[in-house]
Amino acid sequence: MTDNLKGILWMIAAMAGFALGDVGIKALAALHMPLGQIMMGLGAGGTLGFALWTRGRGLPLVTARLWHPAILCRYVAEVLAALCMVLALALTPLSSVTAILQAAPLVVTIGAALIFKEGVGWRRWLAIAVGLAGVLLILRPGTEAFSPLSLFAVGAMLSLAARDLATRAVPREVASLQLATVGFSALILAGAVLVPFGDAFVPAGVVHWSWMAFTVLTTIGGYYAITVAMRVGEISAVSPFRYTRLLFGLALGVTLFGERPDGWMLIGSAVVVGSGIYAVLRERQLARG
């Protein structure tokens, strides 16, 4: 088995883990657990898990480098992403949330061109425009099918793109595990923000704890898998398989939550994914000269 194939398989496993984590959040919301309680529980569990992992690698949990402006910007983006994501998953279909999130790499490319002055040719600009048009097909503003609640997914997508852009400016001396620990702690703050607007915390029973553990473990597993994928295979070969998250999201939404994506959403999803894959392959072609 080649390194690229190994990387692709790890990437697919990562996307499955993240999709299952989304299922866990929807399941907890369906059990009438307040969103603030969900986020604080996930944040605490994930922070503890990554903190133990970080210390196991002999890395410090606290270092002066974590106060770098890029990390602070990344933290703010993580909080906003967590707020929008949990609201989107609780209030809108999993399949549509997953589809909208696939536009994040296109927004990252726009940000990289505007902020970091990275070169983006007209073909990739066209792919970006087509991909964003695909998002509009999913949302369908101005029609009866449009739901204002779907804007939470758009907010999550934009916040995740901002997080990825901030990550590019993080000093290389800061380990990925340290970033992940800080990132998960942002969920605790996001949950605290939601607490005053939600119901009182509910006593967590076996079912609640089981779903909470499931969500934390699948998300941590997804992070581990994507880290291995990016290190084992070539980024240009592995990155297109990020879009398998959409397949998992659609399948899980239909089978577990009885969702029925309509034709426009499927077409919009295909447009977003196709544009994203083209942009990645075009970047790979240019890198090879």
From TrEMBL:
Residues 6-139, 151-275 form the EamA domain. The keyword Transmembrane applies. One of its GO terms (cellular component) is membrane. It comes from the Bacteria. The keyword Membrane applies. Gene3D superfamilies: 1.10.3730.20. The chain crosses the membrane at residues 7-29, 35-54, 66-91, 97-115, 122-139, 145-162, 174-197, 209-230, 242-258, 264-281. Keywords: Membrane, Transmembrane, Transmembrane helix. This is EamA domain-containing protein. It comes from Pseudaestuariivita atlantica.
